[in-house]
Structure formats: C-alpha cells, structure tokens
C-alpha cells in the first residue's frame, strides 16, 4: 500500500509522544499521557480554557483560547508556547477592531479556530449576532486584529476555514443551527473570493446512523491537505438520557471539490473515556479544534476541548489514520454527491 503524505510545511517540533506500549491499539489515535495540558483556573479571571486552537508561529506556537471568564462569559485570549504543551496567556482579551480601526468587540466569543491562508492568520469563532453566529477576524502580526463584519447570517457555528484557497476561492465549513443546544446539524461548505462575501453553499455531510454521531456533527480542526484528499477531524454527537456525548470522527474530502466525501470512518477516533473528558462543566465532551502536523514525519497532534473544562492533546500518524479511515469507511449517496441540489 502506498504511503499517504501530508502536503504542507515541516514542523519538526510538533508536540509528540509515541503510542504507549500498553495501548491496545484499537484506534489510530492515542492520548498524551500527561493530559489535560490545560487545567482549571489557568489565568486570572478565567475559570476554564477549552475548545481552543493553535498553530506553529516563528518556530514556536501561538494559539487562540476559549477562556470562560469568572463572570461566565466566554472570550478569546491569545496564548504562546515554546513546545505546544505549556502555554502562557495574554491577560487582556484579543482587541478586535473594525476596518476603520475602531473597537469592535463581540459580546461573547467561543470555540475559536486559527488558520493561516497565504500570509494572513484568520480567527473564526462563534459570537452573538442576534443569536449564535460566525465571527471572523484577521491578523498578520498577532498585534492588530481586524474583525470582518458579520460574514454569515445566524444561526451558525463551528466554522472551519481551509488552509488554502481551492480553485481561487476561500473555503469554509460551517454548521447552520439554532441558537440553543442545537439538537440537529449537518456540515456545509461555503466559498468566498475575499473572506467577506460567502456563497455557493454546498452540503458536505450530515449525521449518520452510527450511534456516536446520530444527532448532529460539526467541523473540528482545519482540514489537513494530504495525497488522499482533505483529512477532516470533526465532532459527532449522540443524545443519551443524561445529555449529549461528543466524540471525534474522521473523514476525507475530495481535494478539488471538498463538498464530496471520499471516505468517512464509521467508528469514532476518540470518545470520552478519561476522567477529564467524562467529568467537568459539561460531561462527556471531546471537541477537536486544531491540529499541528509535520509533513516530513507525518506526525499529527490533535488539540481538543474536554468536558468544556480542559484542553487535551492526542496523537496520530498520517498513514495510520488515513488507512484506518479508508478501511472503516461507510459513505452514503448524500456524502459522495456534490451537495448543490
Ligand atoms: C456546543 C458548543 C461547544 C460545547 C458543546 C458541549 O453547543 O457550545 O462549545 O463544547 O456544546 O457543551
């Protein structure tokens, strides 16, 4: 079998820990032994950090962190790290400005993603725009942050930007929803010439018949470009008599037409099993928001929120995870069609 490769930058200092020798090896993803990497009360005025995104930056790492303030309102904070594991946070919230340089702070902000396209870094999050909606801001230096005025209508969450333009357009995954604890939801794709105006919306994939994702799904980490297509780690949700359970799933989207799902893994890749995933503010949540990956070695570090309380780190290797997804792939006609009806 030919080796699957990541197409992208070499990140030789990608956080990494080999699969533990006592791991039964059932799944291609394993956890960092020292999890969680971010514990409770991580910064002044912040009770919990979870559902956060990180990226390599100038040989080190930078990230945008969902910080649940002690007044209960979520906001986004910038953090920096030498090793991608130990983080220091800026005391002040990220200071968003509008195009004219005036303050333009969202009322709240949560579940940020951080993606570099060409020479610009984009932060995408969920904010209040008469209900849950997608917020976007851009920066080139992590000092000034220009917030793009409400690019999507409410209600929508889980916006995930592709790390490069496809056919000359920016591409964004998102999950239209309601404004509450949405009991439904599929992943859609939208395109834009400029990050401001979005259209040509297409359906990518919906919930499946498998118990772990039979209620709703949502984009997770920015897709990873590979020789097999775009590798997407996403979240799948089921409902139980005591609440939702969020697991991590994997799919591979067509490289030129990413509304087409080539492979979709019928098993979860990670599901709440450890104390920091099962116990916390919201039990039984594993919520991926970012990866750091190294094209040369194929190593992938997955960052995920745990129980709406902590940040966990998990690892996989590109050939292993893609092979597993392909071997356990079940796709429907709705997955494999272009989704433009
Ligand atoms: C979703 C989002 C996430 C959260 C999850 C579980 O609706 O609000 O931020 O992790 O619920 O509570």
TrEMBL record:
GO molecular function per UniProt: hydrolase activity
This protein's name: Glycoside hydrolase family 130 protein
Organism domain of life: Bacteria
Coiled-coil stretches: none
Key words, A-Z: Hydrolase
């Amino acid at each position: 079998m030919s080796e699957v490769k990541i197409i992208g930058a070499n990140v030789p200092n990608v956080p990494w820990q080999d699969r533990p020798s006592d791991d039964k090896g059932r799944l291609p993803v394993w956890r960092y032994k020292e999890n969680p990497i971010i514990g409770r009360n991580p910064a002044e005025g912040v009770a919990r950090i979870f559902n956060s995104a990180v990226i390599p930056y100038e040989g080190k790492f930078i990230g945008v962190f969902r910080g649940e303030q002690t007044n209960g309102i979520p906001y986004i904070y910038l953090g920096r790290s030498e090793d991608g594991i130990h983080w220091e946070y800026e005391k002040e919230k990220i200071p968003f400005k509008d195009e004219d340089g005036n303050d333009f702070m969202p009322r709240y902000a949560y579940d940020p993603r951080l993606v570099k396209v060409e020479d610009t870094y984009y932060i995408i999050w969920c904010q209040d725009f008469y209900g849950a909606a997608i917020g976007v801001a851009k920066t080139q230096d992590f000092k000034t942050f220009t917030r793009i005025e409400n690019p999507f209508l409410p209600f929508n969450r889980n916006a995930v930007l592709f790390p490069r333009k496809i056919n000359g357009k920016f591409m964004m995954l998102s999950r239209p929803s309601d404004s509450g604890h949405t009991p439904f939801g599929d992943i859609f794709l939208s395109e834009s010439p400029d990050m401001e105006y979005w259209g040509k919306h297409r359906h990518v994939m919906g919930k499946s018949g498998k118990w772990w994702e039979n209620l709703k799904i949502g984009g997770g980490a920015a897709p990873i470009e590979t020789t097999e297509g775009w590798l997407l780690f996403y979240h799948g949700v089921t409902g139980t008599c005591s609440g939702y359970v969020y697991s991590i799933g994997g799919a591979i989207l067509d490289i030129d037409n990413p509304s087409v799902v080539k492979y979709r893994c019928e098993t979860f890749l990670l599901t709440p099993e450890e104390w920091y995933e099962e116990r916390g503010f919201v039990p039984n949540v594993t919520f991926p928001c970012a990866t750091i990956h190294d094209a040369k070695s194929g190593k992938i570090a997955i960052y995920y929120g745990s129980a709406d309380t902590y940040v966990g780190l998990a690892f996989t290797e590109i050939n292993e995870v893609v092979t597993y997804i392909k071997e356990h792939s079940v796709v429907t006609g709705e997955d494999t069609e272009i989704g433009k009806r």
